[in-house]
Design a protein that fits this description.
Elements (H helix, E strand, L loop, with lengths): L2 E9 L9 H8 L3 H24 L3 E5 L8 H19 L6 E2 L3 E3 L11 H10 L1 E3 L2 H4 L3 E9 L3 H12 L6 E9 L6 H6 L6 H8 L8 H8 L3 H14 L1 H14 L8 H21 L1
Parallel strand pairs: 1-7, 2-3, 2-6, 6-7
Antiparallel strand pairs: 4-5
């Protein structure tokens, strides 16, 4: 059993980051252009170093666990898999498979602002579900965006250990943080998406995804600010509002007390906008 790690970049502080903070921030809020860039780059660099392992094993690629709505890592994974399959097929290898580890999150706070001990406690309280038979005896490639404290990686290892699985594993990251302040993650996430205008500009792009972070960001706003944002979203892209609404239902956010006032506004706005769309059509 081998468990290894591969990262495109390593950094100790924001000052020595050698990848785009703006593009990373855009990725975290659903920019598919950024997801494609990072995914393809990670695939190429990983294949260049570990092609023998990829070509000699049946590989399963697994994004960072999520439930219904994609997270940033899963959007990167989509593009990484496409490029890996291209590179492997060009070498007459077998395409990689994919699967998802479902995660039921039991907290609402922004993980990026938390210290190491708080992260460990929260993730250990989450519930994870996966298909043990499907991944048995295969080479597992776990994909995440940035490794900050390693809490997710340790939790995945424990999940495998608890299931008595001895698969060889590789943990792939865009970057690995080697510093001592985990809250740097929040600064990176918000670097280029910190205002309402930033957010609206991002979702106005032709390539965007609805991700969990964007939904939680909206649900964290006070009622009047949320109403203003939703009105701007309708003018920008009606389908984005619909995806947010259905995403909330899929994640069960309408049942979480802290989100219920904001969800009520979202539901009212969606139903009104849907009625207007139906009449217009």
């Amino acid at each position: 059993m081998s468990r290894q790690e591969f990262a495109l970049y390593s950094f100790f502080s924001e000052a020595d980051m050698n990848f785009s903070k703006v593009q990373y921030s855009h990725l975290k809020y659903g920019c598919d252009h950024a997801a494609r860039n990072f995914g393809h780059q990670l695939a190429r660099e990983y294949f260049a170093v570990h092609s023998a392992k990829l070509l000699s094993n049946q590989c399963v690629v697994i994004p960072s666990p999520y439930n219904h709505v994609h997270n940033a890592a899963s959007t990167v994974t989509h593009h990484l898999v496409n490029m890996l399959n291209h590179l492997i097929a060009s070498s007459n290898g077998h395409n990689v498979e994919t699967t998802v580890i479902h995660r039921k999150v039991n907290y609402t706070m922004d993980y990026g602002f938390l210290q190491k001990e708080q992260r460990e406690q929260l993730i250990n309280n989450d519930e994870f579900y996966f298909n043990e038979e499907f991944i048995k005896d295969k080479f597992l490639i776990f994909v995440d965006d940035v490794k900050i404290t390693g809490a997710h990686e340790r939790r995945m290892c424990r999940l495998l250990d608890d299931s008595k699985l001895t698969n060889d594993c590789m943990f792939l990251y865009i970057a690995s943080y080697t510093g001592i302040d985990p809250t740097i993650e929040a600064h990176l996430n918000l670097n280029a998406v910190d205002t309402d205008d930033d957010f609206i500009k991002l979702i106005s792009a032709p390539t965007r995804n609805v991700v969990v972070r964007s939904i939680k960001w909206l649900l964290s706003k006070d009622i009047e600010r949320l109403r203003s944002l939703l009105a701007r979203i309708i003018r920008t892209d009606w389908s984005y509002l619909e995806e947010i609404y259905f995403g909330c239902l899929g994640e069960g956010y309408h049942t979480i007390p802290v989100y219920q006032p904001q969800f009520a506004v979202l539901k009212q706005t969606y139903e009104s906008a849907f009625h207007d769309q139906a009449n217009w059509n």
